[in-house]
Amino acid sequence: MEHHDDTRLEAADTHRFDTGSVVYDREWTRGLRGSVRCAAGLLGMLLLIDRAAGTLTWWRCALWVTLALLLFLVLLPARVSAGADWLASRRLLRTRRVRTDLLVAARPLDGVSPRLILRDTLGARVEIDPDVLVRNPALWHRLDEGARRSEAAGTLRCGTTALHRLARRIDRETALEVFRTSGLD
How does residue 92 score in pLDDT terms, banded at 50, 70 and 90? Predict the structure, then answer.
């Protein structure tokens, strides 16, 4: 099933998405394990309580398994990856990808769960958690390279301030991590 904001690879453009130098979110497996643990913990508690009450039946068990599965799907983090001039976010059923060298906008959304929405000239849109970029300097480096090219080419018209603010935050977090690791904090 195709959606209008999924990036379609055209034959002439496939060289832009080479997989030779792809970087991934290093913390994704930790988030996956956390969502599995939460869902399994909920399922275990529901089954234990239902069993202790003496009301456990096959349909109630199926209901609890469905509820735990839904919790797992809600908590499952997106898998973010980046390569030369692209950034992708893979959810359960689809992958969204933007060309970072053709960015048009980078808009931050603040709130309970902050997000960074990236749009490119091809109409593609990716929504990612800025903390993923903070925790993964290699991902940030790939996004920053492409965003600088977009800014230099004049296509990035909205969001340069947000990206510069994010760059300062990442620099600050990296410096603090270096101080912590070296024992200078």
Answer: confident
Q: Report the alpha-carbon distance of residue 114 to residue 131 in Å, rounded.
A: 9
Residue 8 lies in a domain: no
pLDDT score of 80:
95
Give the residue with greater pLDDT, 13 vs 144.
144
Domain identity same for 146 and 120: yes
Sheet holding 79-83, edge to edge: 23-24, 79-83, 86-90, 95-99
Range of the domain at 120: 80-182
pTM: 0.77
Q: Domain check: are 85 and 63 in the same one? A: no
Amino acid identity, position 106: A
Measure CA of the first residue to CA of the last residue in the chain; give whole Å: 51
